[in-house]
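Team,

Forwarding the record for the chain on the shared tracking sheet. I've put the sequence and predicted structure together so nobody has to dig through attachments.
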Amino acid sequence: MREINVSEITEAVAKLCIDSNYYLGSDVKNKLEKAKNEENWPIAKDILDKIIINADIAKRENMPMCQDTGMTCVFVEIGQEVHITGGSLKDAINEGVRQGYSKGFLRKSVVKDPLRRVNTGDNTPAVIYYDLVEGDRLSITVAPKGFGSENMSGLKMLKPADGLKGVKDFVLETVKKAGPNPCPPIIVGVGIGGTFDKAAYLAKKAVVRSSDIRNEDEYYSDLENTLLEEINKLGIGPQGFGGKTTALAVNIETYPTHIAGLPVAVNINCHATRHLSIEL
């Protein structure tokens, strides 16, 4: 049994909150560079250039790449041989968010109640997903999720007879309806299967997966490529001004489902797709 003190977790989460908001991942940055080099439409090319410059300034000046520093989503993989000591894992994560958003001068965007709308003042609580795995390691991924893109997400309970066409049509319909609102170019996370709630979780898990990693199943990796091509044919383009690049990647995650159902969820992220991981 391996022991990990909550102070380690708090420190790690605080740093991940800051670094993920300051430094754009190389997977997204490289795809932005590639899109700029391949873009023919001058306005779209200029916007992509400005997005890249913005990311460079944020990195150089140690400041947020976007004013919406998100609601903090935290994915935790806990090894079965790990024992958390010194307090609660949940409290340690939230304390890390609290410290990170204060030290990093990150905007606090969380309200305590969805209808009464009073700000918590420290960006807590985080949305935490736990997954029990084999081993003695603790893996934490922090993904600040801005709501300009989150609000453009969708979920639909398709019929099995809708099949592949139904899935593709829903993904394209969701992106088309979103238009310029999620600050394209976007990353599109798609969750297929499970139940109503599981599909949404899969879509969120997909959208924070590195855009360099394709689905291990060739059937779904081919579908990722097909959907990306069809999304980019919509012509929405960077910030909605047209062009070849509406999305940088489509990531799909799946799960077995019931014989009577075909749940599909789409989670959209803006070009500032922020996620960082650490293993303790």
